[in-house]
Write a structure and sequence with these properties.
With 198 residues, the protein is mainly α. The chain has 11 helices and no strands. The N and C termini lie far apart (39 Å). GO terms for molecular function: DNA binding; sigma factor activity.
Length: 198
Amino acid sequence: MSTQSSVPDPSDRNDFVAFVRAHQSALFGFAVALTGDRSAAEKLTADVVGDAYANWPRVSTAEFPLAYVRRMLLNKFLRNTRRRTVVQAPRDPELVSTVAERDPAGDSAQRIAEHDELAQQLASLPKQQQAALALRYYLDLSDDAIAAELGCKPASVRGYISRGLAALRIELGDGGSGPDTPALLSPTLLAVPPPDPA
């Protein structure tokens, strides 16, 4: 019996390292948009990067390797059925400084508070709604593209987004006069790098 490993040979390792260096921050940003939690996003990203390494020969020959790995990340997020409790962790100084740098209005304390509240509410949504919101407002995908990613119909995507936004607005107490929920899902206010094009 042959014991052939799916781990890339050393000549492919340099390509993998270059891929990770080029796209790890964008993958992490997408994971933050999905999970609403930086530490869960770090774990999710690390797991997916490890999976990508183990399958690098297949990943590297895909038409769009970044889209392939991003789909791996989405699938792993959707498969993780454990509900997690968002615990208020001590404020990450890097997050505070990043938000302060990116906040043109200069009200970073308010933005951080809004982000924290949104992250807790995102975590309470069903995973399909979380994913649809992240794909729409972080990656700026169309209904058809989101449907292809989630393996459902565009009408289902519209339902996920509509119900997700409605739940967030109710939980955030936004009767139409509060913060713009989709804007809170933007890379700038999530304090993560913008996504790389696929």
